[in-house]
Amino acid sequence: MERRTLLRTAVLGGSSAVFGGTLWRGAAYAAPAQPGTGPYGALGTADANGIRLPSGFTSRVIARSGQTVTGTSYRWHNAPDGGACYADDGGTSRSSEAESGGGWIYVSNSEINPSGGASAVKFSSTGAITGAYRILSGTRQNCAGGKTPWNTWLSCEEVDRGYVYETDPWGTNAAVQRAAMGRFKHEAAAADPVRQVVYMTEDVTDGCFYRFKPTTWGDLSSGTLEVLVAGTGTSGPVTWARVPDPTGATATRNQVSGAKRFNGGEGCYYADDTCWFTTKGDNRVWQYNAAAQTIELAYDDSLVTGGTAPLTGVDNVTGSASGDLFVAEDGGNMEICVITPDDVIAPFLRIDGQSASEITGPAFSPDGTRMYFSSQRGTSGSSSGGITYEVTGPFRA
């Protein structure tokens, strides 16, 4: 699973690109990641926040559900979930790169029903909190989502016939419902600027993997919803087919014959011609090679050899500039695990004393030195007990 060279041997083509059978599962694909020594070393003892981190890393609490965010009058939402970071110059700039001396914004969904929505915390260039506010209200069970290249946040409803809402991390523009992106039990989204599509996961046991092709890139008001079509194996070539009725009057996953099923789609992250996504029902991390139009397994806990699987309850996923993937656990032993470009998987952090919770919303600050995430139910095990954290340290560049 090389991050930038995904196939070890020649890409399947011609008559070999046939769905089904042994050939579709072909041996040209790398073996899923295996446990090993991670790039950051062993976890230390729990700090004052109950977080076990490698040497050189520290944590702080950013916000707690039901309490005002430090230095602001804004009360943080319940059940914090998916999130992302945005560069900010201290005003209302939507720059795609971190401004010199600029700050940033972290957005976070609220996975409660009703109400839901999303909030944001604004930081100065030194990391001080300078504001917090609501960016989406009146929606239902907003689970994960995705960042767009034009710096909006796609907040996804995890309910039957749920919607995607496009929101403004700066809180200036009103959120917009994007019905053309399909109505289903949404989980996460990831934008691919090369092919000008948005990939999306579906959180049901027989869900599908989708992509939305806007009529005009940068405008999600209209376009074509497609579903991935493939064989029954875990690696091989794939195609895409149009979903006839994105409104979901008939479930979108049941409209196209041959649509590939995934057991509980969760997190979704795109970089370098690849979209990684997770499925919680079988503890897998998948990778879709968009250039070659193939899929394969990046991780499968049932295929771990020589020890206990370090990652279970796979959920939200993000990546760093080094090509490392960071996968959060829903349950498991409350870890965020790292999968390196050379296919080694190891724990990066662990939260103690919160076994009734899940880790959500991992995202890096624009300069890559800070990671944000939440424990959705904290120490209480209730949606009103959510805690949002920041971890700072020597992340690989």
From TrEMBL:
InterPro entries, A to Z: PhoX
Ranges for region Disordered: 374-397
Compositionally biased intervals (Low complexity): 374-386
Domain of life: Bacteria
Listed name of the protein: DUF839 domain-containing protein
Native organism: Streptomyces acidicola
